[in-house]
Design goal:
The structure is a homodimer.
Chain A lengths: L22 H20 L2 H8 L3 H8 L2 H8 L6 H9 L6 H14 L1 H14 L3 H20 L7 H21 L10 H17 L6
Chain A binds a DNA duplex through α3.
Chain lengths: 207, 207
DNA sequence: GCCACTATTCAACGCATGATGACTTCTGCG
DNA sequence: CGCAGAAGTCATCATGCGTTGAATAGTGGC
């Protein structure tokens, strides 16, 4: 009995571990999940460390401060330009549907969904996160889309698209109101795509 | 100097205050503001107490627990039925615009906006608040509106309206993306009303 | 095989939080 | 008046947080 130290996870002996484990990466993955689940304030360094099977001090060793963990964890798991490129390429009449399809494909996968969830959850209580969200909307949505539209109020229109998509993500994946939450992707696309299309290209009744 | 106790706010002598001040009401108002500004987790009993000019223990004296302060503070400052009644009364072709106008009028006023902000902010990190939000959407939006619509997927459609309105509130009043945040009410109404109208009454392309 | 460096844990500090219980002062009823 | 109870404060507790500094164990270059 006494020769078996019985350390399941906590109580691992101090000092470097043998081999070359990607501990930093595991911490980042855990952080992403925790921030997505609880938001910036709700997630704790200790919780992240536990989820990564690691001492809390190690998180500080790698990232210094909680804020820095957050910005490191918010690196998107794909390149926004790749994905918005597919939306703006093609006829303008189909942009709404392509945007809707992009949305459900990104939000349908928990891994790609996580950073957005984390960002939105955190933005509500934290100016830093709100700024990051604003910058994402500007850089990854507004700029590319605005370059292919001509209407004078195109920025407004694109942001209305963003507002519909943010609200949809919230209602469907966070608040989970039924029957919206369990509606099929195709059904949601069919309902939302024309809205986006209208925001993007329809002309308004004059003032 | 010694005869002037110099107690600005903290340090008020213990014991009941003379007169009949509505301290409970002041605490509730402070709580509403704090929850709206910081969400459930971000708001603190101490912060609420300070804003109300009162000892933190008094908050517990009146409400017992933080959760109970929250549900007490979330009583809406108007009767939902009064306000949705105006939306469903009238021609169905104008419902979208009436709903959009209701939205900007509720969200345009900080007092009426506060509970919604608090609810949405809190729902993102707290199952209790999420449930309250769900119930509000069901009771104050879905039920009344569903009673005047006939489409088989009308619940879905109404929830899409809700998702658009939630997203709009977030984008405009919390994240404050520009130019959406400073666009005129009329401009926003003109852009959003047709979306709501379409969700409510337009028929979809068949599957 | 030594040695600088990195990876890792441990123990602790200081602070803020939600909650509790004892104590004091005012109000209103009999 | 006398007294029960409501209104109010104070000191305090336990908990959990972010962060720090010291100590230990493995790695890679010479």
């Amino acid at each position: 009995m006494s020769s078996q130290p019985l350390r399941s996870r906590r109580g691992r002996p101090p000092g470097r571990r043998p081999g070359a484990p990607d501990t930093r990466g595991e911490i980042l993955a855990a952080a992403r999940a925790q921030f997505a689940a609880h938001g910036y304030d709700g997630a704790t360094i200790r919780g992240i460390a536990t989820a990564a099977g690691v001492d809390p001090a190690l998180v500080h060793h790698y990232f210094g401060t909680k804020e820095r963990v957050f910005v490191a964890a918010m690196e998107l798991p794909f390149v926004p330009a790749d994905v918005t490129g597919a939306v703006i390429a093609g006829d303008q009449g189909g942009m709404g549907e392509r945007l809707a399809r992009l949305f459900v494909s990104v939000w349908g996968n928990p891994v790609t969904r996580a950073p957005f969830l984390a960002l939105i959850r955190s933005a509500l209580g934290h100016e830093m996160a709100a700024t990051m969200l604003r910058q994402f909307v500007r850089g990854a949505l507004l700029s590319p889309l605005a370059s292919v539209l001509t209407a004078p109020d195109r920025e407004l229109r694109i942001e209305l698209c963003a507002s519909q998509l943010i609200g949809l993500g919230l209602a469907r994946y966070v608040i989970r109101i039924e029957p919206l939450a369990s509606a099929s992707d195709e059904e949601v696309i069919a309902l939302v795509a024309p809205t986006l299309q209208r925001y993007l290209t329809a002309h308004l009744p004059g003032p």
